[in-house]
Specification:
The protein has 215 residues and is α/β, with parallel strands linked by helices. The protein contains 9 helices and 6 strands, in the order ααβαβαβαβαβαβαα. Strand 2, helix 4 and strand 3 form a beta-alpha-beta unit.
């Protein structure tokens, strides 16, 4: 309408993304901002700080498996443990058809797609498959940041032995006190993937903290 004045204000935080996930990826967000600083082009994604008014949610869950079938079994267990979060479809990003099929075989409603197709949409359970490449090699950090921020509830980071090497620096940016190691095998493999990180060995502390988040 003519004469209508619009006052545009940029949000200082995400009202949708769970607070613990926001805290976990702060360093990744800062790296992207530093890289973009001084460039004339607009930032491709909206980088936001953790907002205390957002839902607390659960911290990102990191899980390792040596095969597709084992990963499907572990994700099935995670899905059942966290079903109190009103989860629906498991969304795997990027396209990992084998993992999607394995989950469907276990009667888990699963889908797999590209981030470019679902960008802007909210999903209750997002799985980042670290063995799948993407098309934007020069913008890996921005690309993965977008994947990690698609969930409004649960985020699962699926580690495989054939994880793409370019993803290891991104894993190193995650806040250690804001992630959940799913089991002992995962903690061991993660320490191998991120050799320049000092990881705590007390899995029991991680386990008890995970249980507290469900209470």
């Amino acid at each position: 309408m003519p004469g209508v004045h619009r006052d545009f204000r940029e949000l200082e935080g995400s009202y949708r993304l769970p607070f613990r996930i926001s805290e976990c990826i702060v360093k990744l967000s800062e790296r992207i901002q530093d890289k973009r600083q001084g460039l004339n082009d607009e930032v491709a994604i909206s980088l936001q700080n953790p907002y205390k008014g957002s839902p607390p949610g659960a911290r990102p869950i990191i899980v390792w498996a040596h095969s597709t079938q084992e990963m499907a079994r572990k994700i099935e267990t995670i899905y059942k443990v966290y079903e109190c979060y009103d989860l629906d479809t498991v969304t795997i990003l990027e396209k990992d058809n084998a993992l999607c099929f394995a989950l469907r075989q276990k009667r888990i409603d699963a889908e797999t797609d590209t981030i470019l197709r679902i960008k802007g949409l909210e999903k209750t359970c997002v799985v980042w498959s670290t063995r799948v490449a993407h098309d934007a090699e020069e913008e890996t950090e921005e690309f993965i940041y977008t994947i990690l921020t698609r969930t409004c509830s649960i985020l699962i980071i699926a580690l495989f032995d054939d994880m793409l090497p370019g993803y290891k620096p991104i894993l190193n940016t995650l806040a250690q006190n804001r992630i959940i190691m799913w089991d002992h095998d995962t903690m061991h493999r993660y320490s191998v993937f991120c050799e320049d990180k000092e990881l705590r060995d007390d899995y029991e502390e991680y386990s008890s903290e995970a249980e507290d988040e469900l209470l």
